[in-house]
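[audit] Reproducing an earlier prediction to check determinism. Same input, same settings, fresh worker. If the tokens differ from the archived copy the diff job will pick it up downstream; this log only records the rerun itself.
[audit] input (176 residues):
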Amino acid sequence: MSNAATGRAPISRRRRQGAIAATICAGAAVVTTVTAGGATAVPEYSNYQLATTVRCDVPDPWPTNRPVPVSVDVFTGIQHPADGLPGPAISLIGSDRRQPGALEYTSETTVKWKNLTTGRTGSVLVPTRGRSLTWGVVLHPGRGPVAFTIRQKVGALAGVPMVNPQYSTCSGRATA
């Protein structure tokens, strides 16, 4: 169909190329704005440090005859903790690092801590449920060396939570 049949004036090749270029530039500006704007809203997590990893295995509540190997990574130097409170903070992330199975676990993890400089103490309880054992805790002990004790209570989720509960305790130290 020609431009004469549609009643529109003919569009030159140069004008069409200019319109395409303007559309591409406008799209690029939107992508740049969205990308740059999104990046500035994300808190900076680049200053944390892996201080240590504590092994905290727990007997499996399911009949596997093997303990669940739980590694707890201890991070310090966190400027913007996951809980939104100000630092200094110590973050503990426990994970069994296995492929998730078909069966579910329930757990209650309690971390008791003591700042060895100030004597300040605290406790955090985190309940979780999943096909693998994974939990995270943020401690706010103030500056200084901190001793902590982790107590895990892990049960099978078989219709009701915490069937055949199993327990483990481990401890570690880090400096906030």
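[audit] rerun output stored. Observation attached for the diff report: The longest helix spans residues 13-41.
[audit] end
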